[in-house]
Amino acid sequence: MTETALLVMDVQRSMVSRFGSDPDYLPRLRQAIAHARATDVLVGHVAVGFRPGHPEVSPANATFGRMIGTDAFTPADPGAEIHPDIAPAPGDPVFTKKRVSAFAGTDLDLVLRSSGIRHLVLAGIATSGCVLSTVRQAFDLDYRLTVLSDGCLDADPEVHRVLTTAVFPGQADVVTIADWTS
Prior knowledge:
Blueprint: E1 4-9, H1 13-19, H2 25-38, E2 42-48, E3 94-97, H3 108-114, E4 119-125, H4 127-140, E5 144-153, H5 157-167, E6 173-175, H6 177-181
Parallel strand pairs: 1-2, 1-4, 2-3, 4-5, 5-6
């Protein structure tokens, strides 16, 4: 195993249906995942998930508080499932997070460090949400970072463009999936 991990974040059924206007998005992610596996790069999946009743969520949380009283992102929610087009393979670690960053409420950092991972390749939904928060936290944890620009989606194309061209390059290499896999 290399010192690199590909993290595929929040590519869950409901997120893909909300942000999935690009029909080539999931095929590109499958290409990145296949490349990672072929080059002995760990593939990890990160998903938002809560217990029934959302006891982990404060009503004051603007993003997650409105889910209280629903089945959103609980085991009863089919939309919480990692999208079947990029579903984890046997042995792929899956991390269930409780907030926006992939590190929030998970043992992600522990598993990565225990596996000798020092370089993270990030893809996911949304660029301005989980990708941004994970880049910031991973950078502060001293990981080397690569962001797959076309492996990320956002509701606002301009926000995506600014993050991938002006913000992320200060902390990460930003490349396309085609460039990363070549």
